[in-house]
Request: fold
Amino acid sequence: MLGPVILAASRSDKMRRFVSVAPGTKQVVARFIAGESVDDVVPIVQDLAARGLEVTLDVVGEDITTVEQSYAARDAYLELIGRLKELGLGARAEMSVKLSMFGQSLENGHELALANVRPVVAAAAGIGTTVTLDAEDHTTLDSMFAIHDELRKDFPQTGCVIQAYLFRTEDDARRLAANGSRVRIVKGAYKEPASVAIQDKPEIDKAYVRIMKILMEGEGYPMIGSHDPRLISVGQELARRAGRKLDEYEFQMLYGIRSEEQNRLAAEGHRMRVYTAYGTDWYGYFMRRLAEKPANLLFFVRSILTKG
Reply:
């Protein structure tokens, strides 16, 4: 039951200050966050690409409060795309964006987020890559899907994310699979009420499998976001049954988690994409990683105790 507590703490300014100064924080954050700047992350992208891995890059920091911050987020992604272009890495690295970072929660946020993300998607297309819109809490999803639909009119390769624990997701998956979208499926990492989300982990896993089947049998491009060996195996079998070739779907895992498995899947010919986050506003992202797996939290606590 620690997960919901940690997710609640991800919104606490007091907890943010405590975690930021804790002695073991830097060591643990480095496990999940590739650095604070473009200069930090570029060598990591080059290394992953050299090992046959694909990358999706996330500039962390969704909790913004001003329009100026939303413009800064847009510009941070444009800077990243410029560096990828210089290095010829466009074919190996896409971007993941949270629309809250682009102003979605501000006044006239839907229009602001669309206006900010469009030039990022256009610039990505210009270097031969694309953008995936990350899913956030359930109150933001109608706006996210509407922006996704709008962007796909000019940039049909634009992807989006769906979350298996939400009751709505099977219907979303059917719609997206039918219209040929690029879709990443994840279990879900936000604290959602029982009125909108499955609370029982085994039931979430069952929903995940049902949704994978919908995506694999559809017309789109499924992206299986999971570190769970059982779900990865099921995904491979569903792809085989659907007659999909190895380049017609992919697996995605987080930077710093199950690296050996990432290399194994790539060596077998699977597309394996590493979700790589960087930036200075790492707190919310970091706390969701702790909430997802108790071992991550234990690792953090041990680091604090041994460094204190």
About this structure: Residues 227 and 258 are 7 Å apart (CA to CA). The chain has 13 helices and eight strands. The first strand starts at residue 54 and ends at 59. The two ends are 26 Å apart (CA to CA).
